[in-house]
Design goal:
The chain has 6 helices and no strands. It is an all-alpha fold. It has one domain: Butyryl-CoA Dehydrogenase, subunit A, domain 3, CATH 1.20.140.
């Protein structure tokens, strides 16, 4: 009788749509692997963009200085320190996301049951949440916002597959 009651409760929850976040989605391992690849590629693209953006800013500043075109007001030491701190915070958060994504890949590939890697996906989501906060506070430009939106979507898709609460906007 107890087993029949618990089965009825689970089935009722599934019909009402309440079981999705608790149990995750049922999908083949290959499909989950594709979600992980999407996140890995998004992390790489975001990191590459930030690296290029930093190099372009340095090159532009040194070229303008060499040509004597520095008529703009120079940044104060406080402004420079704040910019460096924001950059370092984003770099650190992105490094953490890259490490947690790599850990997820290693553990995912080594297991037959992909749901066993739920704790690693939770780490990816938590690291993504940190980047989400940093990007929301900073002004990184339209390209960074576009790349982060695509990466955030990939992380959210992966989180939903595992029944984990997705990132906010």
């Amino acid at each position: 009788m107890k087993r029949m009651t618990s089965t009825a409760i689970v089935l009722g929850a599934m019909v009402l749509g309440m079981a999705g976040p608790v149990f995750g989605q049922l999908m083949p391992k290959a499909q989950v692997a594709n979600l992980i690849v999407k996140v890995e590629n998004g992390v790489d693209q975001f990191r590459d963009y930030l690296k290029r953006h930093g190099e372009n800013a340095k090159n532009t500043a040194s070229t303008a200085q060499a040509q004597g075109r520095t008529t703009r007001r120079k940044a104060t030491d406080t402004q420079k320190a704040n910019a460096t701190a924001k950059k370092d915070e984003l770099d650190d958060a992105l490094g953490d996301l890259n490490r947690s994504t790599n850990r997820l890949r290693r553990k995912f590939d080594a297991t037959d049951t992909w749901m066993e890697t739920k704790s690693e996906v939770q780490r990816v989501v938590d690291d993504g949440r940190r980047i989400n906060q940093v990007v929301a506070r900073g002004n990184y430009g339209a390209e960074a916002a576009k790349l982060w939106a695509a990466l955030r979507t990939g992380i959210n898709d992966l989180a939903r597959a595992y029944g984990i609460a997705p990132l906010g906007v």
